[in-house]
Target: DNA helicase
Amino acid sequence: MSARSRKGRSTAVDTPKSKRSSGKAGKAHGNHASGHEVRLGKSSDSFGDGIISGKLGKKKKSAKNAKIADASESQPRSAPYPHGLPTDRPLDVNDYFDQLHLWLDLEAEAERARLARLRQIRSQRDVESTGQAIVGLDLVDYHTGLAGRYLLDLAKPSGQELPMNRLKVGSPVVLSNDADPSDEGIPGVVSHRKNYQIQIATDIFPDPDAQNAKTGKASKHKRASIGEIRYRLDLSPDETTRKRQLAAMAKARGERGRGGRLRDVLLGIEAPRFDGKKIDALPLAEETIAEERAEIKFRTELNPPQKDAVAFALLADDFAIIHGPPGTGKTTTLAEVIAQAVDRGERVLACAASNTAVDNLLERLERLVPYVVRVGHPARVFEHLRELTLDGQVDKDPSSAVIKDLRRELEQLLRFAQRDSRNVDRRSRGELFAEAGRIRGQIRSLERSIVRGVLDRADVICTTTTIDEELLGDERFDLIVIDEACQSTEGGMWQAILRADRLIIAGDHCQLPPTVLSDEAAAIGMRDSLMQRLVHRFGESVYRRLTVQYRMHESIMRFSSDHFYEGSLVADASVRSHLLCDLGDVDASPLTETPLLWIDTAGAGMEEQLEPDGQSKLNPGEANIIIELVRQLQEAGIEGHEIAIIAPYAAQVRLLRSRLDLDGLEIDTVDGFQGREKEVVLLTMVRSNPEGIIGFLADQRRSNVAMTRAKRKLIMVGDSATLCSHDFYADVLKYFEEAGAYQSVFEFQTLIPE
Ligand SMILES: Nc1ncnc2c1ncn2[C@@H]1O[C@H](COP(=O)(O)OP(=O)(O)OP(=O)(O)O)[C@@H](O)[C@H]1O
Model:
């Protein structure tokens, strides 16, 4: 049966369409459709996802929800699956969620320990060298954002540049008094970041009196005006996300009906179905996929494996997986699946673990789907897509003019309190803040009705997998799509999974796993993805792999293809033999006429070093080589924005950034480059020691990502003597040697120190 006729079908496992959340005709959007009170941005908890944050669900916690909240607090202490989640047998529902709960607890402990260690360090140089805090900041300006949030601009005194830091847009932070180690500070989210200034969005204005009252502590800064205080910003554990995940997991445990079935399929208890067939009747016959494919009016130019993947996904009754090796158009394919679902009258929730991945999907959907809304903090959304954010669309609503007036009034009030802080006594200042609170309340109530309208109209809602539950209420969708699924922990996916009966996940388990701080949690499986587990559990019947890639020269692709994808990748004709020298205005030279180069530093005495005051590693010798190569590339006519330098260690990134100042040139860790591409990529491997220790370079997935970012040229700089103690790198080196792309650093006289 074709998926086109899906809507009329009702199998034993299907809930009839009318009972599901419907398509356009009969959207049942959870509680907010029935006129329950809507509240915006009620607490700092709502920071997770956006300036706009609204409670579209019931105002009071229902008994059921209260139970869920309680359940989310109980803590299992021993791992039901001490070796990670098994894939050779069905999982027990309670054991499974206990395991996920334990992962989250261990991760939270690791996060708290990290923050506690960080806040112990008081020396400015030491604390800032961790990259997790910025100290000695002045509050230089502030504004109000939507929902009456305060946007605080912080900068170093006398305009110094901010130190290298990991406080990215979207990072949860704590703003505290730098001179007072006992100050618990106020929570916020980084909303904007420049070299000299950082902005945070917060629900609480940093009024020193208010803070003292809150903590009940007498402060030596009691009489200081706001402008006289120096602040400190620390990266903080993301408690909001954790709580949301725990609540979703608690709910998933008790799910019944279609939701319960999807859970049981994902736990390997029930067999997945495609086109109404059970797994024992799978794999789906190729003719069935071909039939389905023939019925689809594709909106994008897709290659045959991509078209098959779309047809396959649309035939799934429970879940389907699209495996997308680097550059194979996974996101392009997923966008087509969503567009087809919308054409069939379905409403879709499109998610990914990171904001960047959500935006990559949104970029494609914008052209395919009439009405798409991006939920999330606008500051975390690509600038050219901000119009599609909920905030952007609310702003366009005619009633927003009133909100703008109210916001202006709010700002004036705050400025008055600030300007005259020496003259306004504490009581009057309290009244001013109370008035500000009242205005914020008015702003929120007006915004909530506009928000509801915008969300109701959307065919597709795009968000990170950390879903703002208050905003989306109990809303369900016909289909949930999750991109870059291998970058999310299993626990991180349940908020999304709970919202539909059908799930399409796309990703590549051979690329980066989710970041997990706790070694203990990682040891019991937290880094293993749901997608990987399902592939192992059900095999080829549940996934389609994309095989034609549109990024890399064939030689750059080949190693990755052979090593990670059973040699299945094919370079499209448009990229198969492209080289740097084919770019306009680039000179032909050995550097630009070949796709690969490994410069081996073995024996040249370029040993790794530990960063002073830090734990990260660097390699100045390799940095010198990279700098010289960048100079030569530039000389050949390659522009800065066409080059990327990737280093596995932050200290090497810091070193190179401090020494290279080329317009558009990007220098980052591997994690910063997943999903990206550049004409030429230089990798500095850093590790060089007599013991042959390679640390986390041993995770081959990391190297797979790093080596597949280059379109026309991949240059590796590393010590073969150290790296090749590991089989994987021995294979890489052999591959480069066989391609005639190996050179010892001794062949480059200009690159070795005297
Ligand atoms: N069928 C196609 N024909 C031509 N170009 C395509 C096709 N499919 C994808 N591309 C191009 O290939 C590039 C990669 O596509 P996309 O970003 O969808 O891939 P991805 O698999 O999600 O990437 P990543 O490896 O970064 O996760 C894009 O420039 C896209 O336009």
